[in-house]
Amino acid sequence: MSLGFIIGGIIIAGFILILVEIFLVPGLNIFGIFGFGLIVLGIILAYTKLDARIANFILIAAIIISAILIRFVVKSKTWREMVLSTDQKKTEGFHASADNLPALMGKHGSTYTKLRPAGIALIDNEKVDVVAEGAFIEKDRPIEVILVEGNRVVVRETANK
Asked: 94-157 adopts what CATH topology?
C-alpha cells in the first residue's frame, strides 16, 4: 500500500470523525477536534512525504470534500432540528429590555398586581415588571421606584397615592 493511500485514509478518517461529532455525539467536541487534527496531519504528511503536485491535489481534494460536507450537513434534517430558525417578533409577544428604565428612578405609581416580591406596577401609565424592596405589597398600593439596575426595577410602598 502506498503512502498516498495511507495519507488519504487519515484525511477520510478525519472527515468521518467530524461527521460523528455533528450527527452522533454533538457537543462533546472530542471527535471533532480529533477529526480536524487528522485532516491537518494528513495534509502536513502529504506535503512532507509526497511530491508537491500530489500534496496540492490532496489539499484541493480536502477543501472540495469540506465544501461538499458543509453543504450536505447544512441541508440535512438533523441540522435543521439542531438550529433555531425562527425569530421573535414584538407582535408575537417578544420585547427587548426597555431603554427607558433608568428614567423611572424616583417616580411614583401603583401596583398592578400583588408584588410577592415580583410583580407588575403601573408607572406613568405603563406596566413595568418590578421587585418589591422587602415585604410583599398588595395590589393597588402606592409605590416609588428606589433602584434601577439593568432590567431590575426595585420599588417600595409609600404612604401617599
From this structure: OB fold (Dihydrolipoamide Acetyltransferase, E2P) (2.40.50)
